[in-house]
Automatic annotation (TrEMBL):
<dbReference type="InterPro" id="IPR027417">
    <property type="entry name" value="P-loop_NTPase"/>
</dbReference>
<dbReference type="GO" id="GO:0046872">
    <property type="term" value="F:metal ion binding"/>
</dbReference>
<comment type="similarity">
    <text>Belongs to the TRAFAC class TrmE-Era-EngA-EngB-Septin-like GTPase superfamily. EngB GTPase family.</text>
</comment>
<dbReference type="Pfam" id="PF01926">
    <property type="entry name" value="MMR_HSR1"/>
</dbReference>
<protein>
    <recommendedName>
        <fullName>GTP-binding protein 8</fullName>
    </recommendedName>
</protein>
<dbReference type="GO" id="GO:0005739">
    <property type="term" value="C:mitochondrion"/>
</dbReference>
<dbReference type="GO" id="GO:0005525">
    <property type="term" value="F:GTP binding"/>
</dbReference>
<dbReference type="InterPro" id="IPR030393">
    <property type="entry name" value="G_ENGB_dom"/>
</dbReference>
<keyword id="KW-0479">Metal-binding</keyword>
<keyword id="KW-0547">Nucleotide-binding</keyword>
<dbReference type="InterPro" id="IPR052279">
    <property type="entry name" value="EngB_GTPase"/>
</dbReference>
<dbReference type="InterPro" id="IPR006073">
    <property type="entry name" value="GTP-bd"/>
</dbReference>
<keyword id="KW-0460">Magnesium</keyword>
<dbReference type="InterPro" id="IPR019987">
    <property type="entry name" value="GTP-bd_ribosome_bio_YsxC"/>
</dbReference>
<keyword id="KW-0342">GTP-binding</keyword>
<feature type="domain" description="EngB-type G">
    <location>
        <begin position="104"/>
        <end position="277"/>
    </location>
</feature>
Length: 286
């Protein structure tokens, strides 16, 4: 039923069609919704994939605080589609705070350990415009600079170098002042590898975010890489850390897979929402 309504809605709405040959097969909602209903549900709302494994006594509210409608996701999707009046492109790289461009539009950035999947996630978010070059690599420490991507005049996305193994030498001098001082930074996304769970280095990053007292959100990556039981254990542990050790963190961690595209549409919607680019049609954020 959900899928039938969804397809009807997508047919009636003017949904962006991906023309590019090399776009990921699940880049758009329209493509994703051709899959079987259960698969669509977990692509759009990835927590539903884990919910069946969760004990009845566990409160699910915290995992679904941000639960936008498909209409909202479609609105967000339009923002991630390039057009002559809304160009999405790589803008500039910066090695130090004094190289960071002065921009008015709201900004979001992605931080996390080397190899956690920051660049891959940004690439997946931009999959409707595959001509935007976001470099990913198997080798940790690949992203060496802060890379700025402009999404029209709507917002900017910043891909950060990773911390931990093979982090750039000047990582702290580069990233800390940015996270602390950047005026137009509206959200930091702190990525944690869902297949290994929260690590010591992630806790240090979390403490740093707490110290700056600026809003941030946890994102659990690579959810395709492990069994649901392992993922759920890691998610519940992370959720407990968020609940007991944070004040500036959004209580709901976002689950994603940049390979299978789980959670990409939901995250696009959250980015569009926190940058003030879409009004949610119903109360989706409690
Ligand atoms: N299975 C799986 N692999 C992923 C996923 N996301 C990223 N990867 C892989 O993880 C590796 C690192 O990805 P990147 O996106 O380059 O990671 P990064 O966090 O940007 O790394 P640095 O720039 O080195 O800090 C690559 O081999 C990706 O293909 C995912 O969702 N699932
Ligand atoms: Mg990278």
């Amino acid at each position: 039923m959900f899928c039938f309504r969804l397809r009807l809605w997508l047919q009636s709405a003017r949904v962006c069609t991906v023309h590019q040959q090399n776009a990921h097969k699940l880049a758009s909602l329209q493509k994703a919704t051709t899959l079987p209903p259960k698969k669509v549900q977990s692509l759009l709302y990835p927590f539903s994939e884990l919910e069946t494994y969760l004990d009845r006594s566990v409160d699910r509210t915290q995992f679904q605080l941000f639960h936008p409608s498909v209409e909202d996701m479609v609105k967000a999707e339009k923002l991630f589609s390039s057009s002559p009046s809304h160009k999405i492109d790589y803008y500039i790289s910066a090695e130090r705070m004094d190289h960071v461009p002065a921009l008015e539009q709201p900004e979001v950035c992605f931080i996390g350990r080397s190899n956690v999947g920051k660049s891959s996630l940004i690439k997946a978010l931009f999959s409707l415009t595959p001509e935007v070059e976001v470099r990913v690599s198997k080798t940790p420490g690949h992203t060496k600079k802060m890379n700025f991507f402009k999404v029209g005049r709507a917002f900017t996305i910043v891909d950060m170098p990773g911390y931990g193994y093979r982090a750039p030498k000047d990582f702290v001098d580069m990233v800390e002042p940015y996270l602390n001082k950047r005026k137009n930074l509206v959200r930091t996304f702190l990525l944690v590898d869902g297949s290994v769970g929260i690590q010591k280095a992630d806790l240090i990053a979390l403490e740093m975010c707490e110290e700056f007292r600026r809003p941030y959100v946890m994102v659990v990556t690579k959810m395709d890489k492990c069994r649901p039981g392992t993922l759920l254990t890691n998610l519940l542990h992370l959720q407990n850390v968020v609940k007991t050790q944070t004040t500036s963190c959004f209580p709901q961690p976002f689950l994603v897979s940049s390979v299978q595209f789980w959670g990409i549409y939901l995250l696009r919607c959250f980015v569009a929402h926190v940058t003030g680019n879409i009004m949610l049609t119903e109360s989706s954020e409690n």
